[in-house]
Amino acid sequence: MSNTRWQAIARTIRAVVPLSALALPLEFAWEFAQFPLYAEWGENDSATVLGFALHCTAGDVLILAACFTLTAFLYGTPDFHRRPGRPWLLFTLSGAAYTVYSELANVYVRESWGYAPEMPLVPLLHVGLAPLLQWLVLPPLLLAGAAALDRRIERSVRTKRPPDSSTETES
């Protein structure tokens, strides 16, 4: 593999790690908030529910990282998160598309989980509205947060430059 390819991989990892760190608490909060809309909520003790939420959060972060990497590859840069545009749309819709697939497969085919009667369903798709909204709302918020974090780090680095040695006086 060429040096340029390794550099691109390293840049993508350097972008995905902070994004994933930002995502963890938001994904966990969303998972925990939507859990009453799943049949498993009323069927298990709180430790099991917490385990489900942690498991789903880890899966969400992996999906997020995969969608980010796909978008970075297709657009040729992991820096796509720095400003809104088509890459943000691809990133968001790829996560939403995977969610539709996953919900259909896990609810209706594998029967890994089920919806409580309170879960609103998206017409025609027959998937839960809450998990779909999760992937339509959180990705753009996370990209905006990552972009803001990048700007803050860049400002911090610029203000902490080493002093110019030519202006220093010798003692």
Number of strands: 0
**Helical percentage:** over 70%
Number of structural units classed as domains: 1
- One letter per element, helices H and strands E, the order comes to HHHHH
Question: How much strand content do the residues show?
Answer: under 5%
SS class: mainly alpha
- Residue-averaged pLDDT: 90
Summed up, the helix count is 5
Radius of gyration: 21 Å
What is the molecular shape? Answer: elongated
Poorly predicted regions are none
How far apart the termini lie comes to 51 Å
State the major sheet. none
Question: Can you walk through the features of this model?
Answer:
- The mean pLDDT is 90.
- The protein has one domain (3-146).
- The chain has five helices and no strands.
- It starts with a helix and ends in a 12-residue tail after the last helix.
- It has 171 residues and is mainly alpha-helical.
Indicate the topology.
Blueprint: H1 3-34, H2 40-43, H3 46-75, H4 86-109, H5 129-159
Descriptive key words:
171 residues; mainly alpha
Q: What is this structure, in a nutshell?
A:
The protein has helices spanning 3-34, 40-43, 46-75, 86-109, 129-159. With 171 residues, the chain is mainly alpha-helical.
